[in-house]
Specification:
There is one protein chain. With about 190 residues, this protein is α/β, with parallel strands linked by helices. The chain has a single domain, classed as Rossmann fold (3-Layer(aba) Sandwich). Helices cover about 35% and strands about 25% of the residues. It contains 7 helices and 8 strands. Strands 1, 2, 3, 4, 7 and 8 form a 6-stranded mixed sheet that branches. Helix 1 links the parallel strand 1 (about 5) and strand 2 (about 30-35). Helix 1 (about 15-25) runs parallel beside helix 7. The longest helix has 14 residues, at about 175-185. About 35% of the residues are buried.
Length: about 190
Amino acid sequence: MRILAINGSPRKNGNTATLLREMTKDHADVDLDYFDLNDLKVRDCQACYFCKKNDACAIKDDMQMLYKKLKEADAVVLGAPVFFGVETANTRAFIDRLYALLAFGEGTVKYVPRLQGDKIAISFVSCGNGNGKEVYANIKDRQFAMWAFLGFKNVHTYIIAGATPQGNVLELVDAQDMVRECQKLLEG
């Protein structure tokens, strides 16, 4: 199984990165492409609609490479911390640029996904708020809808609440459960 893991945190060794590495560790050096969004140049969507007339985005930046990896991947794992109520800005830019993976449909079908196959999508956000599951439920719901809209057939979204900047995330029962569940999903 080809896996694309994307760290939306600016911290390369923070809670998000720790969770991503833990859930994909059996695939490292074999079939895993791992990227820190903070190291990439991904500009904001310009709403130019070039992608609706072409099977490509007009912006030539590192997202072009990520589009290729998304098309090749059997599974995508996206993790991001919550900063001030939403995913990080670089994660939002990445998500907005996924719009290029939708073509205009015809009739009552407004959009048609360009990604093919029975792909798995796993998204999670980690936050320090102990009530994060309730407070940030909208993020989980939005990310589920986004992946389904893009044509992913097997979508799993999570919120890991109560993470601290000191890196306690693997001590959290919800995080342990998520990692185990995701490892099974990624076994193929």
